[in-house]
Amino acid sequence: MAKCTIRYWAAAKEAAGTAEERVEADTLAEALEAACRLHPDDRFLRVLGASSLLVDERPVGARPHAGVAVSDGTVIEVLPPFAGG
């Protein structure tokens, strides 16, 4: 399992109660499952479900999360919808 970092922004940071954390995973899906185990409350799950994701600064978009590999040092960013402009 790879050691990767999940960074939370805005409402995701507030819902997680932290700006970032380290998890062990081989795919983005596994990393997000680990985050959900750490934060099993509904608010976190709603924010995560509405967020865009970047893996090493690249948008995940509609790609299946199980097909996005992570490795040691990978940074996953959770970007909730932002208001304003």
Topology:
Blueprint: E1 2-8, H1 11-16, E2 20-25, H2 28-38, H3 42-50, E3 52-55, E4 58-59, E5 75-79
Parallel strand pairs: 1-5
Antiparallel strand pairs: 1-2, 3-4, 3-5
Overview of this protein structure:
This is MoaD/ThiS family protein. Pfam families: ThiS. This protein has 85 residues and is of the alpha+beta class. It contains three helices and five strands, in the order E-H-E-H-H-E-E-E. It has a five-stranded mixed beta sheet. A hairpin with a 2-residue loop joins strand 3 and strand 4 (58-59). The termini are far apart. The mean pLDDT is 95.
Can you tag this structure with a few keywords?
about 80 residues, alpha+beta, five-stranded mixed sheet, 5 strands, MoaD/ThiS family protein, ThiS/MoaD-like, Beta-grasp_dom_sf, Mopterin_synth/thiamin_S_b
Class of secondary structure makeup: alpha+beta
Low confidence ranges: none
- Biggest sheet statistics: 5 strands, mixed
Mean pLDDT: 95
Number of helices: 3
- Count the E strands: 5
Distance between the termini: 39 Å
Q: Radius of gyration over alpha carbons?
A: 12 Å
Strand order of the largest sheet: 2-1-5-3-4
Which sequence of SSEs, written as H and E, runs from N to C?
A: EHEHHEEE
| % residues in beta strands | 25-35%
Give the fraction of residues assigned to helices. Answer: 25-40%
Q: What gross morphology would you assign?
A: globular
Oligomer: single chain
